[in-house]
């Protein structure tokens, strides 16, 4: 900013300098910050202050606006912040906003006015993502129609590129024929025809393969998106026998299913489970319904692989487990049919268990919780 006013490139007679796109209110805020270190950042001016600070190259002010927006970001303003962050190379802020948009897309596609102002490239990047959190793929189609209808004359030619971002293979054939194929935007655009034909051919082929009990390679148009919220039920007792079955509940689909194609954790009941990142730790328990185990296994929910990790210092069944600041804690439980008060911690980085102070009383089958990270 100083350089702009002190440069020798201007003649001495020039006293007025035009700052394009900077309002008088923004300039007042900038000068107050430069001279008095006073700044009133609010939800209604933070984005414009960031743009202005970037334009005038004031790094400290840019950082203040960046920090404010990251804390103030919510489902109502995340799309606008995403656009600003993307335009002004705020990579971390952009990534944070994008995660929020993808996670809450089911709410945003109907309510957000800022979504209607996105350019087609940004909209495609969002709806193409495997991490888009939608309970039904029809949500994506409805979002496209809402965006096109906002300015149909200038946007309807974008239908083909947008249609390719929808997992059309997850629709049933009746919906494709009724709601998509004969929609005016699709019907009037010849470039959409190959996309629809590919989808119908896949749906027909998958129906035939199912009847003949054959496998079919799933194309991109039918690949499910990555679930955002999953519960795992691991092992336990089924039909009076210790089980190794893993079931998963996908909140988005409101459905339970057996997790296929995974490494077996082995029969396990009365164990403790906890999660760090993608790793689900299966700790202690019993594999025969009687004797407690020291062994611990780690199931990676992303790769669907299972590995043995370091065993506990003591066998425990019906124990309590929790994670605090990335460290796993195992407490109490039964050893040789006797309740224990001992406790230990596990560091996943060093793959090592260590004794910690014992509890004041013996416990098993109890609950344990972490509050506010403490």
Helices and strands, with pairings:
Layout: H1 2-6, H2 24-36, H3 46-55, H4 59-72, H5 78-87, H6 91-103, H7 105-111, H8 120-128, H9 138-150, H10 152-155, H11 159-163, H12 173-181, H13 184-187, H14 193-211, E1 230-234, E2 237-238, E3 241-242, E4 246-250, E5 255-258, E6 272-276, E7 279-283, E8 296-300, E9 305-309, E10 320-324, E11 327-331, E12 334-335, E13 338-339, E14 343-347, E15 352-356
Helix pairs in contact: 3-4, 5-6, 12-14
Keywords: Actin-binding, Kelch repeat, Repeat
GO molecular function: actin binding
Organism: Zootermopsis nevadensis (Dampwood termite)
Keywords:
4-stranded antiparallel beta sheet, 15 strands, Neuraminidase, single chain, flat, about 375 residues, alpha+beta
Strand content: 15-25%
User: Which CATH architecture of the domain at 230-356 is right?
Assistant: 6 Propeller
Bin the helical content: 25-40%
Write down the Rg.
28 Å
Which blocks of ≥5 consecutive residues have pLDDT under 50? none
Number of continuous helical runs? 14
Query: What letter string, H or E per element, gives the SSE order?
Result: HHHHHHHHHHHHHHEEEEEEEEEEEEEEE
CATH superfamily of the domain at 230-356: Kelch-type beta propeller
Largest sheet properties: 4 strands, antiparallel
**Outline:** flat
Task: Quickly give the structural class.
Answer: alpha+beta
With strands numbered from the N-terminus, the spatial order across the biggest sheet is 6-7-8-9
């Amino acid at each position: 900013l100083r350089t702009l006013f002190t440069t020798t490139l201007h003649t001495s007679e020039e006293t007025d300098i035009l700052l394009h796109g900077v309002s008088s209110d923004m300039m007042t805020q900038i000068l107050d910050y430069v001279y008095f270190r006073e700044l009133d950042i609010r939800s209604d001016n933070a984005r414009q202050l960031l743009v202005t600070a970037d334009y005038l190259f004031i790094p400290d002010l840019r950082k203040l606006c960046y920090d404010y927006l990251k804390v103030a970001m919510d489902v109502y303003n995340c799309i606008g912040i995403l656009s600003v962050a993307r335009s002004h190379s705020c990579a971390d802020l952009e990534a944070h906003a994008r995660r929020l948009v993808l996670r809450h897309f089911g709410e945003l596609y109907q309510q957000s006015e800022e979504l209607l102002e996105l350019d087609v490239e940004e909209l495609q990047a969002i709806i193409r993502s495997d991490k888009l959190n939608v309970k039904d793929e029809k949500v994506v189609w409805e979002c496209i129609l809402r965006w096109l209808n906002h300015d149909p004359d200038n946007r309807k030619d974008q239908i083909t590129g947008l249609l390719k971002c929808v997992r059309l293979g997850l629709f049933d054939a009746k919906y494709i024929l009724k709601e998509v194929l004969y929609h005016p935007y699709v019907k009037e655009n010849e470039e959409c025809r190959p996309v629809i034909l590919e989808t119908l051919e896949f749906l027909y082929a998958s129906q035939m393969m199912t009847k003949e009990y054959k496998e079919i390679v799933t194309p991109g148009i039918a690949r499910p998106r990555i679930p955002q919220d999953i519960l795992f039920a691991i092992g336990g007792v089924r039909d009076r026998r210790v089980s190794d079955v893993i079931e998963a509940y996908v909140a988005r689909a409101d459905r339970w299913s057996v997790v296929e194609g995974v490494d077996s954790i082995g029969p396990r009941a009365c164990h403790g489970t906890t999660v760090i990142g993608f790793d689900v730790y299966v700790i202690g328990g019993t594999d025969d319904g009687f004797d407690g185990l020291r062994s611990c296994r780690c199931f990676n929910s992303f790769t669907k692989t299972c590995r043995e990790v370091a065993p506990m210092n003591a066998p425990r069944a019906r124990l309590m487990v929790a994670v605090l600041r990335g460290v796993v804690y195992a407490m109490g439980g039964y050893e040789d049919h006797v309740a224990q008060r001992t406790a230990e911690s596990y560091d996943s980085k060093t793959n090592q268990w260590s004794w910690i102070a014992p509890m004041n009383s013996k416990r098993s089958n109890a609950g344990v919780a972490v509050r506010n990270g403490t």
